Amino acid sequence: MTCVLGIETSCDETGVAIVDEAWKIRAGRVASQVEVHAEFGGVVPEIASRKHLECISQLAAKVIADARVSVDAVAATNGPGLMGSLLVGVNFAKALAYTWNVPFVPVHHIEGHIFSVFLDTDSPPAFPFLALVVSGGHTCLLACDRPHHYVTLGATRDDAVGESFDKVARLLGLSYPGGPSIQHTAENGNPKAISFPRGLVHSESLEFSYSGLKTAVLYELRKGGCAVEDVAASFQAAAIDVLLVKTKRAIAETGAQRLVLAGGVAANRLLRQRLDAELSIPVFMPSLKLCVDNGAMIAAAAVSRLEHGLLGDWTTTPSPSLPLMA
Ligand code: KG4
Ligand code: ZN
To answer: Which chain residues have CB less than 5 Å from ligand 2, an ion?
Structure first.
């Protein structure tokens, strides 16, 4: 059975995993740098690349030992992301592939997130589908009519939704990353306490805007008198509301029969519950541990790329702003 080793180093998680052609994760590990960056309230690029370099070799050795299979291809995220961090993963992957005399498969980070829903499940989504990709770096709705073919229906004009969770958490004095800490704090708050703006919600377009929401939170905090729990719950309600409105609009416009939700923010409980409850089409979501960056999603995308004869070549270099359809 074909097995692919996937490497993800685009931001602050070093992820390595081996996935087989039936989308089963044979072994996988993630080394998180969250604690290192937490004191800065966000990712420090120079520290991130150094940390990847420090742990990637041992992490890969452990995954290879855990899986005990021979590897038929090595994949790595080649963008978008932090240049120094991407370079570590891509060069490590190329070196392994060259040594083992197997193909090197570069994978776009968003494509990796999308393929996380194919992992460890008996019922992966069929094509075509609509994808809502929500993370610290991306907020977009994509039409995926066939494997590795994407049309962007709408993306954010400014901040990504995960980025707004991180920035608002910082304003509220909550820990990094902001998504989990806001979700946790919001559980004890009133989501209707403050009516925060829903960016571009009345516009016909499928674009998003999250910078106004973050600024509205800042002004509310300057006014004072609100409990942190209520601000967190009201912010989360506004941020998630927009995702629901735009996704419903995209479904109505495209007639999509199924939705794939992916990216770090896909771990958000309110988002998962609302999509499940309010959409009339099936929603495919990754398990919680596969929402945030990991190596298995990159290997999963590469399994499909291999199947479709979409190999990379040795001259591929990472790009911080790689377009999805290069
Ligand atoms: O996909 P990911 O690991 O990295 C990027 O590709 O950016 O996503 C990380 C983002 C962070 O912004 C984090 O705050 C957010 O995902 N996140 C969440 C939750 N868990 C992680 N946002 C909202 N609710 C969560 N439960
Ligand atoms: Zn990601």
So the answer is: 135, 293
Distance from the alpha carbon of residue 309 to the mean position of ligand 2, in angstroms: 25
CA-263 nearest atom, ligand 1: 1
Distance between the two ends of the chain, CA-based, in angstroms?
Answer: 29
What residues pair up with 6 in beta bridges, in sequence order?
Answer: 17, 75
Which residues fall within 8 angstroms of residue 117, CB to CB, at 6 or more apart? 124, 125, 260, 261, 262, 284, 285, 286
Q: Is 177 in the pocket of ligand 1 (CB under 6 A)?
A: yes
**Ligand 1 atom 23: residue of nearest CA:** 179
Q: CB within 8 A of 220, min separation 6: which ones?
A: 194, 196, 226, 231
Q: Is the dihedral of CA 24, 28, 34, 37 positive or negative?
A: negative
Write the pLDDT tens digit of every residue in 170-211.
999 999 899 999 999 999 999 999 999 998 888 889 999 999
Regarding the beta carbon of 199 and ligand 1, being less than 6 Å apart is answered no
- Three-state secondary-structure class, residue 251: helix
Measured CA to CA, the distance from residue 129 to residue 141 in angstroms comes to: 11
Residue-by-residue DSSP string for 155-206: EBSS--HHHHHHHHHHHTTPPSSHHHHHHHHHTTS-TTSS----TTTTSSS-
Token digits of residue 60:
């890969």
Identify the bridge partners of residue 166 per DSSP, sorted by sequence position. none
The torsion region of residue 251 among left (phi > 0), alpha (psi -120 to 50) and beta comes to alpha
Between the CA of 8 and the centroid of ligand 1 the distance, in Å, is 15
pTM score, two decimals? 0.96
* Distance (Å) from CA 35 to ligand 2 centroid: 18
How far is the centre of ligand 2, averaged over its atoms, from the C-alpha of 99 (Å)? 28
Beta strand pairing call for 259-262 and 139-146 = unpaired
pLDDT per position as a tens digit, 276-307: 999 999 999 999 999 999 999 999 999 999 99
Tokens of 14: 């070093």
